[in-house]
Amino acid sequence: xxxxxxxxxxxxxxxxxxxxxxxxxxxxxxxxxxxxxxxxxxxxxxxxxxxxxxxxxxxxxxxxxxxxxxxxxxxxxxxxxxxxxxxxxxxxxxxxxxxxxxxxxxxxxxxxxxxx
Length: 116
Fold this sequence. Notes:
Blueprint (H helix, E strand, L loop, with lengths): L1 H42 L2 E8 L9 E7 L1 H14 L5 E8 L2 E7 L3 H6 L1
Antiparallel strand pairs: 1-2, 1-3, 3-4
């Protein structure tokens, strides 16, 4: 009876080790994908910032696109628009790199929530 219990415990320990190794490997693969994505973004040249406003602007549009060059410039301008978003009455803004969404921010307003 004891040998069966010991065998069962050793199998559980082995299974536990295997699961831990699989999780560690999956995490390292995810981290590698993130690192590859960052390298790709830093090498990219063309970015696009899409702005969606709550109300029509002077141009009679709700939507505006800004073309940007270089990761550093795109990051700086994205963060500036993020800090000014409520003042500009933005609904949302999205940063794209070659038609792939990199980052998105949705702005929340109390008045908008009360109207619903």
